[in-house]
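Cont'd.
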Amino acid sequence: MNKAAIDNQETFVLNLGPQHPATHGVLRVKLTMDGEYIVHAEPVLGYIHRMHEKMAENRTWAQYMPNTGRMDYLSALSYNHGYAAVVERAMGIEVPERAEYLRVITVELNRISSHLVWFGAFILDLGGFTPLLYAFDDREKILDLLESVTGSRLTYCYFRFGGVYNDIDENFVDGTREFIKTMRKSIPMYHDLVTKNIILMKRLNDIGPISKETIRKYGATGPVARGSGIDYDVRKNEPYSIYPEFDFDVPVYHEGDSMARYMVRMDEIEQSMRIIEQALDKLPDGPVMVAKAPKIIKPPKGDYYQAVEAARGSFGIRMVSDGTNKAYRLKLRSPTFSNLSLFSEACEGMLLPDALALMGSLDLVIPEIDR
Amino acid sequence: MDFAKLKEQLRPLAILEDVVAEETADVEVEQEEGAADLDAQSVPEPQQLPAINEVDHQAKGFDLDVKVEADKVVEAAKILDEQGFFLEAVTGVDWLKENQLEVVYDYCMWQPQCRVVIRTRLDRENPVIPTISAVIPGANWHERETHDFFGIKFSGHPNLIPILLPEDSDFHPLLKDFKVNE
Amino acid sequence: MGAYFKEIFTGTKSLFVGLGITIKQMLTVKVVTEQYPHEAPRMKARFRGHIELNPNEDGGTKCIVCGMCQRSCPSGCITVQGEKREGVKGKVLTKYQLDFTKCSLCGICVESCRPGAIRFSKDYNLASTRKEDYVFDLLKRLEEMNK
Amino acid sequence: MDSELIRVIAFLVGIIAFAALNAAYLVWLERKGAAHIQRRIGPKEVGPFGLLQPMVDGLKLMSKQILIPDGVDPILFRLAPILAMIPAIMSFVTIPFSETLAARNLNIGLLMIFAFASVNVLALLLGGWASNNKYALISAVRSVSQNVAYEIPMLVTVITMVMITGTLNLNEIVAQQPNISQWYIFRFSASPLMPVAFFILFICSLAETNRAPFDLGEAESELVAGYHTEYSSMGFGLFFMGEYANIVIGCSLSVILFLGGWQDPFGLFPGVWWFLIKLYLLIFTVIWIRWTYPRTQIYGLLNLSWKILIPISMFNLLLTAGFLKVF
């Protein structure tokens, strides 16, 4: 913004990260600062790059499933879902209805837990510590529920090609209903404690506005896009699994500022709960695994694409199969990679704390960016 | 968005390609296949159609598949950008046997849902392709990533340094002849 | 001017509401944390710990040394060895080693095992300063379990 | 030795011991309070209810090596933590814990406290500057602008108080409020805005001591640890103690000026316990506030000061002057 300042060398470079409390992981942002104003920001990525895409080429299709959950440790199931769905699409596997319901229930639970962590961490970025622990308390209930079904708490690896690997029991259904009841009570509390707080409103309203055009040019998706007035949700626009059977809204806010993104996510928690409730009501009986599951996974030649709505946006998998038991090429399109790429443009001329609020509102999960 | 109009706009960009008999399976095409293989360099036969194919979304996950020459990707990006598409990802595929590198651009539109794939093949020895980051700034990082993984050079790219790999890396791990040390 | 005072008023009110919520949490909600070393968590029935050999009725192993687990493991952390013995049909398991440093607890091995010879253990309390401690000899573990 | 000297030495030792112990146990209170607000238990392993935890923490801090990083200004770097501590301790000299329990019953006690309070900001500035660390420098600059902004409404409010009380002597101010109806916070005959004045003073003392939600200086999610990023061991410890001592001073002032100091609310048994009860209730409020709100932003903070607190305190000043003239 301030060209004169750069020319006169009145700027300095501030290294935000790779180890910094606000970057939630090992992201480094090279900030050129004019006082506390950001002249230029350059995110430096790749500190936990693991080359998941090469691993896909060295493992069988089934063996790669655990990897997908490890990309985004907060909403691992969405990523499992995307991967399972693309292989099923290629092989033409019909997933039993009950399995689809279980997928939706668990993915939506996982989405709520992811948003809760984001909520806590975002307020932590803004200097409020307590909401983090309230959010973690609520999330703990989800983790317990998911653990009772999948067997683990973070990297679930619950889906299989053609279904899920375990059926749920009555306890899970009751527990989920119980959880939704308590969550319905918690959300107004969060709104009273955080959303309506004048300090928070002052910090988020009109901070970091992102225009519709910027969103489109950078390919941002998910709550970031929906906070800028773009009504795009893969679950609605390009329905997969059994999402068309549920009645839910896509929260859209038009302001484009950090508050809008915040509100989108808070509203999404409510919508996810609605989906879960409907799914529990309609849950059909039947197998959770396709009866004639192919023993050896060898998708036919060709390339396939599948997008799913992960907690952070549209997660896409482009797979190229050469008809063998390993992927020829597997491209993982992670939503936060695109979402973060607009940060550099959006934060120019902002104060450092505002830029961190903006960064927090993008909901970064670094392993997912770096893959 | 008018899908048919978009197809018309993209049609001139697509390379001409021998039609592989599929859903448009005609007897003529089948006859031509052998002939086209014999002299691929000859003047395009009427049966060599532009490589712009509508794809069954249910089966493949995208709607339009366009093969273009490397120097047409910018033009394609402009057309799609004007139509309101956004760029999902840029990536590559290494076709070692054919000694070619494929660059794939995934475009998507929010409403109505439409996914367009632009793909182009490059020579593996000298993979250079113009950048589309001037048209779509979001492509910047995706192209850097593709450069990291495949060594594809995006000419005109403002900042083609490694993004995910270490800044001093000189290897391209997604090439098929890259050896993985287990 | 009206908006100015209104903002002061609503803002102050929101601050007091916040204070009310936290003090209510402090006074009414009981502690939810688990006092870990004093009270150990109970693992869920499906908890995916590291694998262990599933004993049959007489304490032996059900393993038929087919090697499916070894092949299905994405990380290559399972080593199975067996040998032919006289008078016994099929192979006899001589070594079942799990390199837990590489294991990602995905559970594919357990699913791939047709005789049901391996299962998840409930161990979560794994800590050591040496890497070698995480190379488990599951056959030995089975013997110890039988004692 | 004459008794006056013994008295001074005894009080000095007492004050330093009080400041140190108080800081240690305020940390304990802070951790416990935060924990229970957050549905946790907090320190509980060392001693009953974790009461020995602050002692052990203090020992740990003292036994650590003082690291002086390369490139720092060696003199200023060492000076800053001391400078953070001294004004806080000096201010204690004039605080009347009870009618007789005060090191010095100064006529200009109020003035002295504010004089030392403004020195405090120098410590932050020096610490931030000498650390040769960009985060610390940003933090120092923020702290200074914040302190300057909040000194004004604070002093205007205090001037209002001085106009009402007619004295700068803290003990006399307390003596004027023998029971709850005569506490200055409820003295509507002096000015109908007295509770507002109390809030302004309280908010300002929060801001002056860099406490949440005004802790821009050590905003840990932005500036790592602010001006004491580079400090280790007791260098950090002194900053820490200084901060808590300042909280005590700020809250004491509020108690003395508005809540009747050591006076019993019912006018029965005045004494040091009443002062301590009021003081710690107010300190608990400070802690409670910290664990409730997110941090303000620098312009929000300055807006609050320049657009809200200063006009209101100025108005209050005029109003009080008018009331004094008329009644």
